[in-house]
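ping. complex inputs:
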Amino acid sequence: MAWFRKKEPLAEVDFDHLPRHVAIIMDGNGRWAKKRGLPRTAGHAAGAETFRSIATYCKEIGLEYLTVYAFSTENWKRPPEEVNAIMGLLKRYLLEAIEQMERDRVKMCFFGDLSPLTAELRALCEQTKEISRHYDGVQVNICLNYGGRDEILRAAQTYAMDCQEGRADPNHLTEENFSRYLYSNGVPDPDLVIRPGGEVRLSNFLLWQSAYAEFYVTDVLWPDFSKEELRRALASYQHRNRRYGGVTLS
Ligand code: IPE
Ligand code: IPE
Ligand code: MG
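pong. complex structure:
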């Protein structure tokens, strides 16, 4: 089934009816570098640039929420040099973001268990989040050491503790109140999940939240992903018929 891999035509996007929340699995950095005979780390550096420009574009078009998968709970399996290079790029990005915050007014949040990160990186994440808490530009959620299963497990654990201590009652558990225990508490579910790099899988991304998300896969590798590619994905989304299990009455 390759029909959704074909290049979507450059359709017009209706910017008055954008999805509220777009999520992106930023994949393909390694392959991008390999194609050029460069080390994988060069791909991550190029991917970080793409992230900067796509986040800025999302702010410009007035998107409310952008969630990006930057490092998964499984990515620790990679060689330490690669992991260190990714963490180094993250540090550079956060330092820059802090410097430009007043101007950009992007609200930054982090989804994931930050405890295995260095104290320096954790402090930078905390600082970025705190400074931007009241900003009204696009909200960018960076998934770092994030795994959908890990998120659900942690939520279940905290919920169970709340039950044990009388703060919650299992007889009244609903999807809505369980969602509050997730990293994404307060953020609407993603409407559109984009995966560059051509793999047709979720790789443990937003498992709970993506229940009814529209999926868009493109063979374009993340470092080559452009504003134009994002517009393709948005236009494709705008032609979908979201039924949520119901029927469309015509
Ligand atoms: C995504 O690119 C970045 C991270 C997972 C951190 P990859 O590094 O997975 O690139 P490919 O999939 O090997 O091309
Ligand atoms: C998903 O990409 C994780 C991120 C983009 C951060 P991976 O490259 O880790 O996923 P798999 O291994 O192809 O499933
Ligand atoms: Mg990959």
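The chain has a mean pLDDT of 95.
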